[in-house]
Amino acid sequence: MNASSDVRESSSSRERTSSDSETPDLQAVLAYLIRRYLPNHKTTVANIRHKVFCGTYSKSGDVFLSASQDQFLRIYDTSYGQFKEFKAIRARDVGWSVLDTAFSPDGNYIIYSSWSDCIHLCNIYGDYEKHDALPLNPGDRSFAIFSLTFSSDNKEILGGANDGCLYVYDRESNNRILRQIDSHDDDVNAVAFADDSSHILFSGGDDGLVRVWDRRTLREDDPEPCGVMAGHTDGITYIDSKGDARYLITNSKDQTMKLWDMRKFSSSDAIEATKKAVSRQRWDYRWQSVPKSVYDILTGKMVSKLTGHKSCTRDVSWHPYQNTIVCTSWDGTISKWDYVHEDPEESDESSSSDDEDDSEDYMVARRRSKRLARQEKIFKRNMVTSNAHGLFE
């Protein structure tokens, strides 16, 4: 190969590299759009007149499920952006309230838990009624599953309980196949599968710790986590896995969310520091008001604070693909937040009254880095190109 061909190849390579760097990444463009059009307008879609505990969208986003202290699970059709209740299920064996719910991966069933020895499974569709009790046989008189979820293959149900244990129920054999003793020092409030394999489990408890378990090496009588994540200063309330067995986010009673990388676990010193911080915590969600917040995962900064409920916001669910957030509250309402176009002169720093009856949001003024500013310019320049390629309608 001669020098001229080397020059041509090098030039061509530079052109391809330059062109590739200017090609818009679909996920990046979508992230940009979501960041620019965060939900800011609240609409009440249901008045239950009882404390509403649970609320979540199905995987398809066409169905929304709520559970309230009146012992009813209500299922809404949300396929056209509106909430139409099409089924109400009277929960069984309820102590105090339904505590958690989950959709099956195929979207045909729901499960719920309460202060009861059983998880209950119900069908969503069809003229028949399926309402089965799935016994966990905990052996404790006062028992509750605080968090539960399906495995991705629909064969197992994972639950975390007030006895500090994890439970796995096998749907094919209709039996509990795991009771993991002493998973946490206190209530287990959150559980999740790390990925589709169902081998790796996440659990979070009132001890402020997130534990990672590998079922392939797990001894039920002497469980040892393969890693622990410490850093919260109060109990864990929710865990969401990215599904890649690497990243997960946690929500805590300390009013923070944290993003974790499984490739680096916490040290024993960090674990002890977390336990001490939790023991000194005095905050209580039942009477200390905290607003709903939306964070920018690139900067870690809060970009929106949503106010409007008159009591504790118990659950928050973001629509799988629409820019819509639904909140359930102890004030007896279910609220939907959508984006409503504002006056351009006020869109950067819009704010609302601190009055909780006000349904408008409070947008925190933010300052973006130069890197993000450059990204924004590239995204804007490429929007036309993206549309030409059929990415947006």
CATH architecture of the domain at 57-291: 7 Propeller
Number of distinct beta strands: 25
The major beta sheet can be summarized as:
4 strands, antiparallel
Shape descriptor reads globular
| Order of helix and strand elements from N to C terminus | HHEEEEEEEEEEEEEEEEEEEEHEEEEEH
> What is the H level of CATH, i.e. the homologous superfamily of the domain at 57-291?
YVTN repeat-like/Quinoprotein amine dehydrogenase
Region (Disordered): 1-23, 342-366
WD repeats: 181-214, 229-270, 306-338
Keywords: Repeat, WD repeat
GO cellular component, one term: Cul4-RING E3 ubiquitin ligase complex
Give an overview in words.
WD repeats lie at residues 181-214, 229-270, 306-338. Residues 343-361 have a biased composition (Acidic residues). Residues 1-23, 342-366 are annotated as: Disordered. This protein has 393 residues and is of the alpha+beta class. It has a domain at 57-291: 7 Propeller (Methylamine Dehydrogenase, Chain H). Helices cover 16% and strands 35% of the residues. It has four helices and 25 strands. It has helices spanning 3-22, 26-36, 268-279, 370-388; strands at residues 41-47, 52-57, 63-68, 72-77, 84-90, 100-103, 109-113, 118-123, 131-135, 145-150, 156-161, 166-170, 175-180, 188-193, 200-205, 210-214, 227-229, 236-241, 247-252, 257-261, 292-295, 302-306, 313-318, 325-329, 333-338. The strands form seven sheets. A four-stranded antiparallel β-sheet has the order 1-25-24-23, with no helix packed on it. A four-stranded antiparallel β-sheet has the order 2-3-4-5, with no helix packed on it. Strand 23 (313-318) and strand 24 (325-329) form a beta hairpin. Helix 2 packs across helix 4. The N and C termini lie far apart (47 Å).
